[in-house]
Design brief:
heterodimer, A: alpha+beta, Rossmann fold, OB fold (Dihydrolipoamide Acetyltransferase, E2P), globular, B: mainly alpha, MetI-like fold, flat, binds adenosine-5'-triphosphate, binds magnesium ion, NA-bd_OB-fold (chain A)
Chain lengths: 360, 279
């Protein structure tokens, strides 16, 4: 991103290491106004740590955090132009849902009718109009989470921080809330940092995704790029379904079993490598010439089918259109070829390699 | 004879309640009724009426004693509350070694028997106590009168009540989650709003428990005021003892006891009303 244009949120070389040695290191990130950036990664990779540093609840060891060009490091949470939806909701048990929402507006000296209008609208938005006079303890986890979302949205922060805000919702509601949030975001042009460990959620909601692993940024790209061109085997295996095979590189070519394809990745060291292929990028054929496998299972899943193919000791997953699935049956010998694949150095999990793609 | 389940349950419940009710009856209710009856009999034994109570409120010494008692009680209660609340807040939200040490030390006074503590106060603050002698060493020879005075009494009450109240309030504040404080700050609450809108409401009930216990303890106290209180006015506990044994006016003493009981009941009423509230 262009850092000469003022970013809404700019994180520079942020490090926060706990006594235990866990934490985050060297996080740099620029987020434009109105952008929705997702921090994605497995549990314990440091997503909450980054978010809490932005919100002012953790003091970083190194680095700086700027909002609209000004460092906020010396501001306490109550003075930062951020609002947070906490992973554990953090509703106030001694106030009703309505009071929970109204509090922030009250201390911002809003007039009573304005507060009433805004709170009512926010409750409608999260589909909880009937819960206004209830106590947070009388709500389900999912309902509490939606109240927490409404409460933070009402504050109209410069940067909205969301820590797994939909984790307690069922699949249907989660999808609805996701769309709702994206609409709000487009409408209000609110800048959002969204934390999730759900890759599907990240792919569907974000302008850009930050894939984190072990306290560091593994890749920062658009969802499309993350999916199509993962820069490490970690990203490849974390995002979407993927088959991982062992290969050997001689510099010019990659050999996977009987297949030999040109190697487009000059940076790949000679020797063992990892070949990652998405299920939709595998082509099944009755004609020889690819990897020789045997169909183990055919599972029709609506408009497409998932085929399990035994290849040596591995079981590969292949997605095919339903029409083709009708011609396939368990036990059948089949040849596998790849439309597209990603190759990575064999040992490295976290090292960032240049873009690697090959067509076979 | 047929007995349905609910009747059986009722009988069982009654059987379980009866022992404690009997104890309550003989240990609390009977003495109270007896004291009320006694208090209504005129001191010269002539008749039945409110004469003793009228005396309590009209006779200057008695009136002074009552006002003095209320004064000592209310001031001691408020001071204890403010100090222990501040201490509890500091212990809950503060950091560092000072907090650690206060946490280890603050309840020690609870383990010192009242009589011993009172004598401790006398040897420290007394006219020839070590504090005055210490001050004399550095040239200050005008030592204020603390012991055998109002101040000494309040000081003793603080000594007795702060540790316990701090302990109560600390446990209440420990139950206020950090997450609540964090989200309140995130919403923009400053220190004052944090305290009055979050910490106080979330520890309000325990605060009333503390107030009630301090109040009851102070208003009925005897040992400390007997040892270091002024000769006049006196707190009700000491005055009652004198009226009872020095003047042998049992009926007046009973009236004083009933009055003290009524004052405590007022407190008890507020206590029960607060505890009854939801949330
Ligand atoms: N206050 C703390 N003290 C010590 N270690 C901590 C603290 N907070 C977090 N950690 C550690 O730092 C690492 C990152 O934690 P963090 O909460 O940021 O993970 P996360 O990505 O949000 O995980 P999750 O998806 O489970 O919420 C973890 O290993 C965690 O154990
Ligand atoms: Mg987290």
């Amino acid at each position: 991103m262009n850092t000469t244009v003022e970013s809404q949120l700019s994180i520079r070389n942020l490090s926060k290491v706990f006594k235990t040695g866990d934490g985050v290191r060297n996080i740099s990130l620029d987020i434009a106004k109105g952008e929705m950036v997702t921090l994605l990664g497995p549990s314990g990779c440091g997503k909450t740590t980054v978010l809490r540093s932005i919100g002012g609840f953790l003091e970083p060891d190194h680095g700086d955090i700027l909002i609209r060009g000004n460092s906020v490091l010396n501001l306490p949470p109550e003075k930062r132009p951020t609002a947070m939806v906490f992973q554990s909701y953090n509703l106030w048990p001694h106030m009703t849902v309505y009071e929970n929402l109204a509090f922030g507006l009250k201390i911002r000296k809003y007039k009573k009718p304005d507060i009433e209008r805004e709170v009512t609208a926010a409750l409608e938005l999260v589909q909880l109009s009937s819960a206004a006079s209830k106590n947070p303890t009388q709500l389900s986890g999912g309902q509490q989470q939606r109240v927490a979302l409404a409460r933070a949205l009402l504050l109209k922060p410069d940067v909205l921080l969301l820590d797994e805000p939909f984790s307690a919702l069922d699949a249907k509601l989660r999808m609805e809330m996701r769309e709702e949030l994206r609409d709000i975001q487009t409408l209000t042009e609110m800048t959002m940092v969204f934390v999730t460990h759900d890759q599907e959620e990240a792919l569907s909601i974000s302008d850009r995704i930050v894939v984190m692993h072990g306290g560091q940024i593994e890749q920062l790209s658009t969802p499309q790029e993350i999916y199509d061109a993962p820069q490490s085997s970690f990203v490849a295996s974390f995002i979407g379904r993927i088959n991982v095979l062992k290969g050997v590189s001689d510099g010019q070519h990659i050999t996977v079993g009987e297949l030999r394809v040109p190697n487009p990745n000059v940076a790949l060291p000679i020797g063992d490598c990892i070949v990652a292929v998405r299920p939709e990028d595998i082509y099944l054929s009755t004609q020889a010439g690819g990897l020789e496998g045997q169909i183990r299972q055919v599972m029709v899943l609506g408009h497409y089918a998932e085929i399990s193919v035994n290849y040596k000791e591995e079981t590969l997953k292949v997605f095919v259109p339903r029409e083709q699935a009708a011609t396939l049956h368990p036990g059948q010998s089949i040849s596998l070829m790849f439309h597209k694949m990603n190759v990575f150095p064999a040992i490295s999990v976290s090292e960032v390699a240049p873009r690697q793609e090959a067509h076979a | 004879m047929m007995m349905n389940a609910s009747v059986k349950k009722g009988i069982l419940g009654l059987a379980l309640v009866i022992p404690s009710f009997l104890i309550l009856f003989f240990v609390v209710i009977v003495p109270i009724v007896y004291a009320i009856r006694e208090s209504l009999i005129d001191e010269n034994g002539s008749g039945f009426g409110l004469a003793n109570y009228i005396r309590l409120f009209t006779e200057p010494t008695m009136r002074k004693n009552i006002i003095y008692t209320l004064n000592v009680t209310i001031v001691s209660t408020l001071l204890s509350l403010v100090i222990s609340y501040s201490l509890a807040v500091y212990l809950r939200f503060g950091h560092g070694w000072v907090v650690k040490w206060i946490n280890r030390l603050y309840f020690i006074p609870m383990f010192v028997p009242g009589v011993i503590a009172t004598y401790g106060l006398i040897t420290m603050y007394g006219n020839h106590g070590w504090l005055s002698r210490l001050l004399l060493l550095i040239g200050i020879d005008t030592f204020p009168k603390i012991i055998y005075d109002y101040n000494g009494l309040v000081l003793a009450n603080l000594w007795f009540n702060i540790p316990f109240a701090t302990m109560l309030l600390s446990s209440a504040l420990a139950a206020v989650p950090n997450s609540v404080i964090e989200s309140a700050r995130d919403a923009g609450a400053n220190i004052g709003q944090l305290f009055f809108r979050f910490v106080l409401p979330l520890s309000y009930k325990t605060m009333w428990v503390a107030i009630t216990f301090i109040f009851m303890g102070v208003i009925g106290s005897f040992t400390a005021p007997f040892l270091i209180g002024a000769n006049s006015p006196q707190v009700l506990g000491v005055a009652m003892q004198q009226v009872f044994s020095n003047y042998q006016e049992t009926h007046t003493a009973s009236a004083m006891a009933v009055l003290m009981f009524l004052l405590c009941s007022v407190m008890g009423y507020f206590y029960i009303r607060t505890m009854g509230k939801e949330g």
